[in-house]
Amino acid sequence: MKDHDTIFRYIGITAIVLLLFGLAGWYFFISGRTADLEGAAQARGFDIGIPSFSGSRGSTAENIAVGFGTPLTGEAAVPASGTKRAPRLWRVNSSPVAGAGFVSSGSTTILRFIERSTGHIFDADPETGTVVRRTNKLIPRVYEAMVGNGDSVIERSLDDKGVLSTFSGTLGTTTVDGFVPLTGVDLGSEVRDIAISGVPDAVFLASRSGMTFLIRSMLGGEKPKEIISLAGGDFNLALVHDGRMILTERAASGIPSNSYEAQSGTLVPLARNVPGLTLLAHASSSAVLIGSDDGQSLSLSLRSSKDASAVSLPIRTTADKCAWAPGTSLTAYCAVPQESPGPGFLTNWYRGTVHTTDSWFEVDGAAGTATAFFSMDAESITDVEHPSVDDTGNYLAFMNARDKSLWILRITE
Amino acid sequence: MMPFIRASGLFIAISALMASAPFAYAQLSLTGLERQLDLATSPQYPAGGETVDLSITSFAIDLNRSAVTWYADGKVIAQGDGLVQASVKTGALGSVTSITVVAEEEDGLIGSAQATIRPTEVDLLWNTGSYVPPFFKGRALAGTDSTIHAQALARFKRANGTFVPEKDIIYSWYKGPTQIAAVRGKSSATFAGPALFGTDVISIIATSADGAYKGRAEAHITAVDPSVELYENHPLFGVLYHRALVGSVATLENEQKVTAVPYFAHIKSPSENGLSYEWEVNGRGVAPDPEHPETITIAANGYTGPARIRLTLASAKDFLLHAIGSWELVFSESGAGAFGTNPFGSGSNR
After folding, report:
1. Nearest-10 Cα torsion for A40, A42, A44, A50
2. How far is B136 from chain A (nearest CA, A)?
3. How many domains does chain A have?
4. Interface touch A352/B231, C-beta < 8 Å
5. Distances from the Cα of A358 to the Cαs of A252, A321, A337, A362, A378, in angstroms?
6. Closest Cα of chain A to B281: distance in Å?
């Protein structure tokens, strides 16, 4: 009996030793294969970074512009340290952008913008002139983008078949490989226009079965609530900071249009039967700027409250080229064509067949006056679109409709 | 029975019976026996806060030899011999203004008319099914064979602040003088657009079911000839809709992809079946991309000089659609190219 125990003990010890040898051999075999694979990958250049995005900003402009051999006029040098101040008029991004908007980060103001070619999101510091790429999520050919507070963005793009998508996303709070994840959903191809603001929701116009629906929902499309539905009319949508939804009939030179504040189930008129109507609602009052293109020339007027009469302003431009200053004052900044753009301007401008060269005016709505405060030089010919003023009232951002470049103007030097 | 006429977006009730009065300008204390005057207003359907012109005519008395007094809500607003016209500013939506006019002839014959003004607002919104490219911010105008979708917004505000609901409003649609629909509770309509180069006057008359409120709006819709614009189709940025190719422009590229956009054509998509794109470059036909016939790629292959592009667009479904565009793209080896060379420059292509 004792002999059997001894035999079993020897067999067990031998089995354990053999198992350990086997495992050790397997480990060394795998290690060798991994080293071979890493060597092969290294030899193929797999560990080399993507060269097109190795610049300090990693933007399309920076990576491609060198190929054209000419310096980018007006572009601020990216400072090595944060001590350098950006020029008063700074071309933030020379390649086309899809959209931009100011966001507050602590006590600082940041201009966030979306690159048209990649959909990448960048943050520009208007004070120092530094630009940082935030995301690496690729969304090719973003034609239109919006920036909301709370790290929300909307990116609207077309695929190769021309199908429209509206990506509604939010920047993450973590960082992976230096970039912030951008997560969100596609709201679908039925979204015709969309707007976001400081509040964490979105308002969009959707078309279905010949009807247009104005819908308010969470950013990802959850909890949709129909505000109103219409069987006729074609609108541009704007969302004021205080949450008001503005629907303005799309304009054509000389053709009367209307503008409304959309409330649940009803449209409250803001401007009626104005030829070539463009309208900009004040963020904290019922004041509106009303632009008109009667087919021959432009005019701009200001109505300080709901019941007030519109006062004609001494500048000829559209409300699309204006932005209200923050706060309750009736101060606005408007880009005004230096020369009359000719008949049929709005229709031609929207088609991209005509461009203006603008100067900046400050509108004093209380006095009904407009004063020139900044003229572009010959190197900075801009046809202003999508202007906006940051919450501090110090910076004016806008896009150049000629090339979709992004600019910042420091309002007071 | 009290006869009434409709005028000026308000409901006008006129009682006109003869009476006598011993004074030059009649006081507002009618007996109901005065002779009838015809009271008209302009605009016919005034909105809130609008100035309304009032006028009277009569076959019963000689207004030129009468002392006429106009009242609004019992207060004199105008007075004079032979004063057949006056004006009054309407109140806000929801207000009611009572107009009374009294005319007294020298021989004591009196005529009168009364009206009640209830301001209304009616808007007529419309859009067409015409094609415009994605993200186009302007209005799609009516092209050939277009369809018009119209929506009426009637705001009939009662004195108590509530609005007459849509289901209690009768909407009568007119195309020119011809009524094309009259439906209670349905504020929208769809109809064929104007003929090429023609203008249709579309109007809507909205009336509350009880007849107390009435309003009108109209739109002049002119048909335009669809036109073609040409844009660079950039490999990175897509179609540069913001920068149309106009006239002659230079490029430093050796190959250029361009896309045509048929504005205001009666199509859903520029690549839909039935559309015929005939492209020519320097007089020679060029085959477009079969899936996207609105797009061609021009390869210079070392050639420098102008490439004259011509496009003829027609439709098998719409025989009136016939758009022609021509452009010149100059392939250069050097110089300040303005199109397709530097998407970062201002790139004026005028």
Report:
1. 150
2. 7
3. 1
4. yes
5. 21, 9, 4, 13, 11
6. 22
Residue B64 lies in a domain: yes
Residue A281 lies in a domain: no
Same domain for B216 and B237? no
Q: What is the ipTM of this complex?
A: 0.84
Is residue B212 a part of any domain in this protein? yes
Closest-CA residue of chain B to A256: B219
pLDDT by residue for chain B (350 residues), tens only, comes to 333 333 333 333 333 323 333 344 555 566 666 788 999 999 989 999 899 999 999 988 899 999 999 999 999 999 999 999 999 999 999 999 999 999 999 888 899 999 999 999 999 999 998 999 999 999 999 998 899 999 999 999 999 999 999 999 999 999 999 999 999 998 999 999 998 889 999 999 999 999 999 999 999 999 999 999 999 999 999 999 999 999 888 888 889 999 999 999 999 999 998 899 999 999 999 988 888 999 999 998 888 899 999 999 999 888 888 999 999 999 987 654 455 545 444 433 32
What's chain A's Rg over C-alpha atoms? 29
- Choosing from B117, B152, B179, the residue where a domain stops is B117
Contact list in A for residue B43 (CB cut-off 8 A) is none
Q: Would you tell me which residues 217-246 of chain A have a C-beta closer than 8 angstroms to some C-beta of chain B? A: 230-234, 236
Same domain, B251 and B282: yes
Distance between CA atoms of A231 and B129, rounded to whole angstroms? 12
CATH code of residue B22: 2.60.40.10
Count the domains in chain B.
3
Which residues form the domain of B277?
A: 227-331
The amino acid at A269: P
pTM of the predicted model over 0.80: yes
Q: Are residues B28 and B93 in the same domain?
A: yes
Which helix (DSSP H) or strand (DSSP E) does residue A213 occupy? strand A211-218
In a domain, B349, yes or no: no
Hey, CA dihedral for B82, B83, B85, B91, is it positive or negative? negative
Residue A320 included in any domain: no
Single residue among B222, B250, B283 that ends a domain in this structure: B222
Binary contact (A403, B347; C-beta < 8 A): yes
- Among residues 140-179 of chain A, which lie with CB inside 8 Å of chain B? 141, 143-144, 156, 158, 162, 164
Residues of B in contact with A269 (CB under 8 A): 121, 123, 155
